[in-house]
Specification:
With 328 residues, the chain is mainly α. The chain is 68% helix and 0% strand. It has 18 helices and no strands. The termini are far apart.
């Protein structure tokens, strides 16, 4: 009887202790939520006053947020609000501390833009990091040339900026002019840009780019522009008089579009073209994959044939799914 009583007493105290711990944890969580909400309100209030960063009220709010994770955003906003060359040291410290974080690029971009306007080239180069922002990248190259970096180092990098399927920022024009004068705009480079402008790029660039080709090749730029507007032209082989490699590139582009619009016409056109063109292995593979995908998508009677031509080991997930669907 005494042993049973002792067990009951122990169980009672264990339950009581568990209840106390649970209540304590609940209280802790409530206090934490309350603290977090209070910190959030302080942050939102400080954010509205960040443009008055020297005011006593802002400094008081800021000091109460020392352990709040969003406090650095106030520093970022303050540095963005009024940029001054006198902030260079603080800017460097902040960007180094928050490098590669979401706080980095918005501030770095604004700072680089500010330095460019102030013509502070050395500082610009110090703070610059590789970016997809074309205007800033061109400015970096211009400052590099201005401060003595050899053309042979800088100008080859300009090629990648020029060979795109769209118009670039006008601030790059002086750089492109220097690049052209140095002989980097070759016929092959022009052709690469024509391909990008025609295939998914800004086709209105094609007339301008066509004029940059040698006279005996300008018909190619015009042909690609026509095929871009009407892929059915690839079914008329007289538009491809020389059956050269470049003409086969235009044909490949057009036939891959035509098969989605008119599958039967595309199949017949490709059958005729195989006797006229010497298609590369890569071109044949691209055409077969596009035919297989388009015909399977349309549930065309020839889909199985084109899917069977593909190497199973090279199929991506999408094509593999269509292949399995046809087999089943």
């Amino acid at each position: 009887m005494g042993a049973v009583l002792n067990s009951l007493v122990i169980m009672f105290f264990l339950l009581l202790y568990s209840s106390v711990l649970q209540a304590d944890n609940t209280l802790t969580n409530v206090l934490k939520i309350s603290t977090d909400q209070g910190q959030q309100r302080l942050f939102l209030h400080a954010e509205k006053l960040v443009y008055k960063s020297n005011s006593r009220q802002y400094k008081s709010l800021y000091n109460q947020l020392h352990y709040y994770p969003l406090q650095p955003y106030l520093d970022q906003q303050r540095l963005l609000d009024k940029m001054r060359l006198s902030d260079t040291r603080e800017m460097a410290s902040f960007l180094k501390e928050h490098e590669n974080s979401p706080l980095d690029w918005p501030l770095r971009k604004a700072w680089l833009t500010y330095l460019a306007k102030k013509k502070k080239g050395l500082l610009f180069l110090q703070f610059f990091k590789p970016t997809k922002n074309v205007a800033l990248t061109c400015q970096k190259h211009k400052f590099s040339l201005a401060y003595g970096i050899e053309e042979s180092v800088v100008l080859p990098q300009i090629t990648a900026l020029w060979v795109v399927g769209k118009s670039q920022d006008k601030s790059c024009d002086p750089l492109f002019e220097r690049w052209v004068k140095a002989g980097y705009r070759t016929d092959d480079v022009v052709w690469q840009r024509i391909k990008l402008a025609a295939d998914g790029g800004k086709h209105t660039l094609l007339p301008y780019l066509t004029k940059l080709l040698p006279e005996d090749q300008q018909y190619l730029g015009s042909l690609w522009h026509k095929v871009r507007r009407d892929p059915a032209l690839v079914s008329r082989l007289h538009y491809f008089p020389k059956k050269t490699l470049k003409e086969s590139e235009i044909f490949t582009y057009g036939i891959k579009r035509l098969v989605w619009r008119d599958p039967d016409r595309a199949i017949k056109a490709y059958e005729k073209a195989q006797q006229a063109f010497n298609f590369s292995t890569i071109q044949q593979q691209e055409i077969q994959e596009r035919f297989a995908l388009a015909l399977a998508n349309k549930n065309h009677k020839s889909a199985r044939y084109w899917l069977d031509l593909l190497d199973p080991e090279k199929l991506d997930k999408n094509m593999l799914q269509w292949r399995l669907t046809q087999v089943l």
